[in-house]
Amino acid sequence: MKLMFASDIHGSAYYCRKMLEAYQAEEAGRLILLGDILYHGPRNDLPKEYAPKEVIAMLNLMKNDICAVRGNCEAEVDQMVLDFPVMADYALILYGERNLYATHGHIYNENNLPPLKNGDILIHGHTHVLKAEKREDYTLLNPGSVSIPKEGNPPSYAILEDGLFTIKGFDGTIIKELQL
């Protein structure tokens, strides 16, 4: 199954639309949101077209396609308005013979690893910095940020298909690829 990963929408209706357009164009089987869906938090500037209510409406229409984990900006009130679960700290996805551990990154990350077996995959957002690296015992992935990228990166998302992890910009450019 083709999976699309996106993180850190932070309530941007503009970039949520871009993300959903990319999801449709990619014809992915599932959209995995890595947290910080509705709010921008105190450390970030407002993203383009900050409109959490519009983001809620767009994502609720896609509720059967979405698997989401809780970011550090999610609160219980978010679950009251979203029609899909958003309060889990992580999702464990079987990917072939490996586990793909999807989380936001504020708790589990490269400096505080979750319980991984040799060869497993850790994917998270939170840093707003894209990454795709094979480490000694695991693979570390980050699709970057949909709306507030950092370190000069463009707004981005990622696709995982047939063992190839591809980070893309919303203009369709391939930013980074890694064969898992």
From TrEMBL:
Its EC number is 3.1.4.-. Residues 1-161 form the Calcineurin-like phosphoesterase domain. It is an enzyme of class 3 (hydrolase). PANTHER family: VACUOLAR SORTING PROTEIN VPS29. NCBIfam families: PRK09453.1, yfcE. Belongs to the metallophosphoesterase superfamily. YfcE family. This is Phosphoesterase. The gene is yfcE.
